Amino acid sequence: MPQFSNPFELRGTVVVTGGTRGIGRAISSQFSRAGARVIANYLRDDKAALALKAVAEQEGLPIEILRADLTTPAGQQQIAASVIAANEPFCGLVHCAATGVHKSIDSLTGRHLDWTFALNVRAFFELVKLLLPQFDRHSSVLAISSMGATHALPHYTAVGASKGALEALVRHLAAELAPRGIRANVLTPGAVATDVWKAIPDAEARLAEAVRRSPIGRLVTVEEVALCAQFLCSAAASGINGQALMVDGGTTILA
After folding, report:
1. Rounded to a whole number, what is the distance in angstroms from the first to the last CA of the chain?
2. Domains and CATH numbers, the chain
3. What is the pLDDT, as a whole number, of residue 4?
């Protein structure tokens, strides 16, 4: 284990997929403030990417914005090339990028499932494999999951199934990559008010119910999720491997 004066600080380069919006943006910002050089990947939302770039330049944060389609070999190679070009230890991959359709089972098609799994699971698998030669001896892989991986939620079949597969993949990576010094974990936020909810039916009612059920009386914030991500990728969590950390204010402990 490397020696740190502050075990929560981060060093080297970290790739954050989906790193310019919502939880991903919060993680990119927090990791850069904790000492990491961040490659924040995105695909479509140029406005969000430019906004993060402006903040990074204003605050002097070491964040590189990289547009790349992670579902394609070319996009994956772009990530790898950027990591190599950084010319410093590669200490982490955080997979925040996600997609999916929110439909009832009778409206879902195989194409919907393939599209969802392509980004949520397959892209993560391919990136880990491609980046294996670049990982530092003391590095971390972190996948952002959701409650739908273990709970049945309305109109969440495709996404929930992909997140369940993602968590299973992380457990296997944790066992297989540990001898190389690479830890793999899952971070599962509860309900967090981000733009993702705009695509979910009855979002307002479901968020209100989440607040009502929460022991802390509110939703967790993207900043709280980002701090937990920092912990899991830091030396402070060097003994944590193959685990899923729930960040939901205690909602899921209630009957």
Report:
1. 40
2. 13-248 (3.40.50.720)
3. 62
